[in-house]
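Hey forum,

I'm writing up a methods section and want to include a predicted complex as supplementary material. The small molecule is S-adenosylmethionine. I've pasted the protein sequence and the SMILES. Can someone with a working setup run it? I'll credit the forum in the acknowledgements.
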Amino acid sequence: MEQEVIIDTSEEVYQPAEDTYLIIDMLLSYLKTSNSNLSLLDVGTGTGVIGISSAKSKKISKLTLLDINPKAVSLAKSNVKQNQELLRETTVKVLQSDLFTNLPKEKYDIITFNPPYLPNEKNAEILNEAFFGGWSGIEVTQIFLKRSLEYLSNDGVIFIVSSSLADMNKLTTYINELNFVTQKQEKVHIFFEDIICSELHLKK
Ligand SMILES: C[S@@+](CC[C@H](N)C(=O)[O-])C[C@H]1O[C@@H](n2cnc3c(N)ncnc32)[C@H](O)[C@@H]1O
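Reply by user p_vandermeer:
Happy to help. Structure tokens for the complex are below, copy them as they are.
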């Protein structure tokens, strides 16, 4: 029987929503046919649910979760503890970091990021870091993608969420410029926007 993931939430941390479950579904479906013994980095982990859920596949041997929000880091740590049975064969690290800033240079097989993707100005409120990705909604994603090149293994894969409210044309052009190819995309429609999850690989 598949083990359940138990996740506590908090008002100060992004609560798992449709975008979270979209990326988890795509990730678990990818892991069904992937190799084993993989390393996974979950950027902007929030509660930690994406990374923790990946352990259901039994294919993740190393898991790193990071967030800029210290409250998210504490919550993700406690959620890792709650799911220690599921994670018993996985080495887990949780750290506070602005994207890759505090992360030691290592290569990962999988990197996931459900970023702040709504177009708007950032302000000092830490919870706003969970939603607003800069003026066109893709600025945080662009910085992430550029820097991810130093952390992704050659055969690695990135799962990233974006929104139809952001400047998707600009993002697609940028993805090509960085030499990524979009292998798969899935969408869900929520209220006034499409949430899009893309599976990116490096061009050979
Ligand atoms: C949309 S929420 C996603 C949370 C969680 N991964 C999920 O899917 O439920 C975006 C997360 O990214 C974090 N974040 C925003 N900017 C970041 C940055 N520069 N570096 C690291 N994390 C960041 C936020 O604190 C927030 O937890």
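Some notes you might quote in the supplement: Residues 9 and 31 are 26 Å apart (CA to CA). The chain has one domain: 18-202.
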